[in-house]
Amino acid sequence: MIEQIIEAIAKQLKVNPADITPETDIIDDLGADSLDVVELLMTIEDKFGIVVPDDEVTNLRTIAKMSEYIEENIK
């Protein structure tokens, strides 16, 4: 799961996947802005068939948190 998230983030933000760990913060460490975050969440939603409510977005800043959320909500 984490590997799939890392691949999606690396592609979306055009960064080296080797620079991304489960503790990587997509805003602080990878420099994502609010538009990047929205686009990334749309990609994650499509890839895993989930819906991320707006109030959850701020809780999903690290790869580990994203993975945990996806695993709990995957169909």
Tell me what the structure shows.
It is a single chain. This protein has 75 residues and is mainly α. It has a single domain (2-73), classed as ACP-like (Non-ribosomal Peptide Synthetase Peptidyl Carrier Protein, Chain A, Orthogonal Bundle), CATH 1.10.1200.10. The chain has helices at 2-13, 34-48, 63-73. Helix 1 (2-13) packs across helix 2 (34-48). The chain is globular. The mean pLDDT is 93.
Order of helix and strand elements from N to C terminus: HHH
Q: What is the SS-derived class?
A: mainly alpha
CATH architecture: Orthogonal Bundle
- CATH topology name: Non-ribosomal Peptide Synthetase Peptidyl Carrier Protein, Chain A
**Mean pLDDT level:** 93
Assembly of the depicted chains: single chain
Portion of residues within helices: 40-55%
- Give the count of helical stretches: 3
N- and C-termini, Cα separation: 14 Å
Q: How many domains is the backbone divided into?
A: 1
Number of strands: 0
Write the CATH homologous superfamily. Answer: ACP-like
**Which CATH class applies here?**
Mainly Alpha
Largest sheet: none
**What would you report as the Rg, rounded to the nearest angstrom?**
11 Å
Tell the overall outline. Answer: globular
Would you spell out the secondary-structure blueprint of this structure?
Blueprint: H1 2-13, H2 34-48, H3 63-73
Helix pairs in contact: 1-2
Give a quick summary of the entry.
This protein is an all-alpha fold and 75 residues long. It is built from 3 helices and no strands.
